[in-house]
Write a structure and sequence with these properties.
The longest helix is centred in the C-terminal third of the chain and has 16 residues, at 381-396. The protein is α+β, with helices and mostly antiparallel strands and 404 residues long. Helix content is 31%, strand content 25%. A hairpin with a 2-residue loop joins strand 9 (140-145) and strand 10 (148-157). It has two domains: 2-189 and 342-396, FAD/NAD(P)-binding domain, CATH 3.50.50; 193-335, Beta Barrel (Elongation Factor Tu (Ef-tu), domain 3). It is elongated. Strands 1, 2, 7, 8, 9, 10 and 20 form a seven-stranded mixed beta sheet that branches. The chain has a seven-stranded antiparallel beta sheet with strand order 17-16-13-14-15-12-18. The structure holds dihydroflavine-adenine dinucleotide. Residues 9-15, 32-35, 39, 41, 44-46, 50-51, 131, 158-160, 163-164, 168-170, 172, 341-342, 369-371, 380-383, 386 line the site of dihydroflavine-adenine dinucleotide.
Length: 404
């Protein structure tokens, strides 16, 4: 039987980071992952360049059933702390958009950095290795693994969420949480494209591939989200940053609201154009929106499309403008975990200590990263949560009183 101060299960963003810090604090750490390849999600993230943090990350960009939970960890390990680490490892990076930081080279540099930090901490890594069982054993834990039994005073669950099952996602973390009496906040795909009923979407299928800036809103009260980002039409529905962002706020059965011309005062522009131009409405609209969208929009309104502007009533123009500025749509679903960047919901934070990520009722058991019910917006926030929750946990882990 091999013994460790801490076993970290899941060698993704949170697990690698936690293991490295704990190892460097002098703990004897075992890191286990069942996947063949290391940290695949980091590798594919940010289009292969890993949007590793967001300069402006703070609690406001996270959703949780317990919104204050993430404050402590985020305050104690900030984007600036991670940027300093990236600089120490001489990884070149740039800011792309709204505080989002990406590697100039590739995501592999972040993986190599995390591995190096683990090496500095003398972390033992078993991968691929399946964990068959985690059980309470006295004051510590006993694990049954492919490579034999393991004893540890502390266990850290860092197995992430359910998105992208083909690269190793599993429900392991939720099962362990339930086994030890933790509640799970319902999980659902988030940062995911939205789909629509095929018949309702048929008029827009021809727009697949079209991208334009839009405003999108969903939800109400404290659970309301609104984003001004690019929108992308797909064969089955809508995607692009605007939709990925709003998908986290969207609840099945509810509508989303889109402004397809957020930069224009359309009612004023169209009524003004009526006084100054004899063009057909379609040509006028194509100056304000992508032509394909203008044509598709008016194809469903032939009574307007073919008339010169002066022949249209003000009421018709303001109604058309209002429809474009407040397009209400009822998604039928999402593209699911196959395409979702993250899983919303997860281990209920009311059962965890926000300083250490430790279970409130099972001393020594910790949950970090995406498996926890803390979900960030698109833009580097989810990695920042992985780093911050991992750091909070790693700093709280204790070496065994009797050396292992
Ligand atoms: P992560 O998923 O990284 O790691 C979990 C690990 O646990 C995996 O290695 C898995 O193999 C392992 N595991 C699972 N079950 C196990 C079991 N039963 N036994 C042993 N091991 C097990 N975020 C961001 O901030 N910026 C970005 O650019 C992107 N881009 C992006 C693109 C795409 C396509 C996706 C799918 C996701 C992103 N994300 C992102 C989200 C980000 O990747 C995610 O939030 C973090 O990787 C979560 O880190 P964790 O360590 O919690 O889980």
């Amino acid at each position: 039987m091999q013994s460790f101060d801490a076993v970290v299960i899941g060698a993704g963003a949170a697990g690698l980071f936690c293991a490295g810090i704990a190892g460097q604090r002098g703990l004897k750490v075992l890191l286990i992952d069942h996947a063949d390849k290391l940290a695949e999600k980091i590798r594919i993230s940010g289009g292969g360049r890993c949007n590793f943090t967001n300069r402006d990350a703070g609690p406001a960009q996270f959703l949780s059933g317990n919104p204050h939970f993430c404050r402590s960890a985020l305050a104690r390990y900030t984007p600036q702390d991670f940027i300093a680490l990236v600089k120490r490892h001489r990884i070149a990076f740039h800011e792309k958009h709204k505080g989002q930081l990406f590697c100039d080279g590739s995501s592999d540099e972040i993986i190599a950095m995390l591995l190096r930090e683990c090496e500095l901490g003398g972390v033992t890594r078993w991968q691929p290795c399946v964990v068959h069982e985690v059980r309470r054993d006295g004051d510590g834990f006993g694990l049954a693994t492919d490579r034999g039994p393991v004893a540890s005073t502390q266990v850290v669950i860092a197995t992430g969420g359910l998105s992208i099952p083909k690269i190793g996602a599993s429900d392991f973390g939720y099962r362990v949480a339930r086994q030890f009496g933790h509640r799970i906040v319902d999980t659902r795909p988030a940062l995911v494209p939205l789909t629509f009923d095929a018949a309702a979407w048929a008029p827009f299928v021809a727009l697949a591939g079209l991208s334009l800036p839009a405003s999108v809103a969903a939800g109400s009260g404290k659970a309301r989200g609104e984003f001004h980002e690019d929108l992308l039409f797909t064969h089955r529905g809508l995607s692009g940053p605007a939709i990925l962002q709003i998908s986290t706020f969207w609840q099945p059965g509810s509508a989303i609201r889109l402004d397809l011309a957020p930069e224009h005062d359309l009612p004023a522009l169209l009524t003004h154009a009526k006084k100054t131009s004899r063009r057909h409405l379609g040509n006028e609209l194509a100056e304000l929106l992508p032509r394909r969208l203008a044509e598709t929009w008016l194809a469903g309104r032939p009574e307007l499309a073919q008339r010169p502007l002066p022949e249209l009533r003000d009421r018709e123009l303001t109604q058309l403008a209002a429809d474009l500025k407040r397009w209400e749509l009822l998604p039928s679903g999402t593209e699911g975990y196959r395409k979702a960047e993250v899983t919303a919901g997860g281990v209920d934070t009311r059962g965890l200590d926000s300083q250490s990520m430790q279970s409130c009722h099972v001393p020594g058991l910790h949950f970090i990263g995406e498996v926890v019910d803390v979900t960030g917006w698109l833009g580097g926030y989810n990695f920042q949560w992985a780093w911050a929750s991992a750091a909070a946990c790693a700093r709280s882990l204790a070496p065994a009183l009797v050396p292992q």
